[in-house]
Every structure is written in C-alpha cells, then in structure tokens.
Amino acid sequence: MLSNGELGNGSISVEPFIYRLVCTNGLTLKDAKQRKNHAGRANESTDLYASDTVQAIDNAFKLKIRDLVRNAISITTFRNAVADLQASKNDTIAGHPAKAVEVTAKAIGLSGDESSLVLNHLIRSADLSRFGMLNAVTRTAEDIESYDRATEVERLGSSVLYLPQSTWHEVATANN
C-alpha cells in the first residue's frame, strides 16, 4: 500500500498489504519485521541547490521508493507474513469472547461501536483464535463509512497479529 505523508512533508509510506479473496478483507501489515517505511524529504528551498543537485535528490528519492516497494512485495516478506498468520491460528481464545474483544479493542484502539462489530464478526466466524480476531477486525473495516478510519482499522488487524505475548495472554484468558 502506497500513501502520502499525513503531515505534508513530502513523504511516501510503503506497507505490505494482503487482500484475501476468500473473505475480501484487507490486512495492512505493520510490525517490527514489516515496518511502515517512509521516504521523502522535508519541504526545503530548492533555490539553494543547483539543478543537478535537485535532480540527484529526486533520483535518490525514486530509488528509495523502488527499494521499499521491492521489500514490501518480496517473497521473503510474503512468506514471513504467511508464517505469522498460520501461527496465529494456534493462539486460541480460552476465555469469554466478548471480554476478549473488549481487551483487544482497548489494546489496539477501537471504539465501542467498532468493538461491537468485531464481536459480531468473531462470533459469526466461529474462529476463536488470534487469526479469527484479526479477521474480525479487518472485516469490521468493511462496515466503516469513513475511508480513512476503515484503512486505519485494516492496519489494526496487524496490531492484533503482532500483539505482545503478554497482551495476547490477557485477551485469550479474559473472563467476565
């Protein structure tokens, strides 16, 4: 997924994105292994530089983007993501699903309405695992009217995938 910087500082973000046809959910990956990478330069006066310097800066920027995209779509990045997703199926929710969603929502920053949607999707899927929880979160993105918030919720799915083990333990064992 390519996006421009939110602050108008000339940056571009490159993030691996997985779109699964089976559920039409999008998952934007972000964690320590697959960082959201920025490239760009702050707004600076180009009248200080000669035209060949400005051209070199622009060429370096293009090369950075090329390298970030190559990394985001590399087979290694894909295989790592698939391995992480497969492993998430083994992290089961042993506690109460509603409480697990509540703890997850607090950990990743979902609103009350969004967490209700997540609970509905989690129950409908009948997949009480970390994988099921992240799919319920990404499925919820489809229900959100605001494109910006829906995109953010797609990112939050990977936050579920990469919750610290101690936090996941809280989710998995949460009871009323």
Characterization of this structure:
By secondary structure, the chain is mostly helical. The protein has two domains: 83 residues, no CATH class; 81 residues. Helix content is 55%, strand content 11%. It is built from seven helices and five strands; from the N terminus they run E-E-E-E-E-H-H-H-H-H-H-H. A hairpin with a 4-residue loop joins strand 3 and strand 4. It is elongated and about 65 Å long. The chain starts with a strand and ends with a helix.
Features:
single chain; 176 residues; mainly alpha; 2 domains; three-stranded antiparallel β-sheet; two-stranded antiparallel ribbon; 7 helices; elongated
**Helix percentage range:** 55-70%
Shape: elongated
Sheet having the most strands: 3 strands, antiparallel
Radius of gyration: 19 Å
Mean pLDDT: 86
What is the helix/strand order?
EEEEEHHHHHHH
Using DSSP, what is the number of strands?
5
First and last CA, distance? 38 Å
- Number of helix segments? 7
Structural class: mainly alpha
Q: What proportion of the residues form beta strands (DSSP E)?
A: 5-15%
